[in-house]
UniProtKB/TrEMBL annotation:
Keywords: Hydrolase, Metal-binding. It holds the Pfam family FAA_hydrolase. One of its GO terms (biological process) is small molecule metabolic process. This is Fumarylacetoacetate hydrolase. SUPFAM superfamilies: FAH (SSF56529). One of its GO terms (molecular function) is metal ion binding. It comes from the Bacteria. Residues 73-276 form the Fumarylacetoacetase-like C-terminal domain. Belongs to the FAH family. It comes from Actinoplanes awajinensis subsp. mycoplanecinus. The lineage of its organism: Bacteria, Bacillati, Actinomycetota, Actinomycetes, Micromonosporales.
Amino acid sequence: MRFGTLADRLVLIDGDRALDVEEHSDGRFPSDVNAALARFGELTAWAAGADWSGATSFTPEQLGAPSPRPRQVFAVALNYRPHAAEAGYQAPDEPLLFTKFPSCVTGPITEVTLPPGKPDWEIEVVAVIGAGGHRIPRERGWDAVAGLTVGQDLSERAVQLQGRPAQFSLGKSFPGFGPTGPVAVTTDEFADRDDLAFECRLGDERVQHGRTSEMIFAVDDLVARISAVCPLLPGDLIFTGTPAGVGNRREPPRYLQPGEVLVSRVDGIGEIRQRFV
């Protein structure tokens, strides 16, 4: 199942066709993503037999964030060994968690106003939480995930790294700094949900690429470790980490500039596109 939002309403997606969930379930499921994902098992069972005769067409520019109002947005630092090395750190023994504030979350095709400083890119595969839960064991970790989507953990490095110790969250939460989409894809759609290829390009240059099999802490492990402390709620997001190739670790450093376009792709999901002004 592939799901997303159009006009802030939950829809199922098949190519360029969309099926409004509330309308075509005769009100059984709400248009609100969080409320519908709270009944994720029921939703997927209904979706498997949904009648697509009333589907409508859409353009990619019309899509919103697959989970537009997450109550919690978790992010993982240094979850790929090459990125830890380029940043000058040892690979962590425990996940290094921070948050992006939910107000930064946007849809897949956006225009982002760059703040002053050192704005940077970080492609990430993002897990969208379904029914959620507290103290979820790792063997049930994937069961808590409604789907995977593409994300960018855009980061303004001057704010992110100011102070001792540095604090991450503000520098990663400027307006538009959490683009996600174009859709969320349930894990049964992938040949191997633990091994997805991804890349991002800045203009014609491929600046990052990797596979989720290279993560230090896999998605199910992250779900277990986070939910051991914080109950995961329907629609929550987990930005699972970025590989090597970010701008501030280049020689010389390279930062996002007005007029540039960043395209981020994950196999089996699609792409998001940000233009900077």
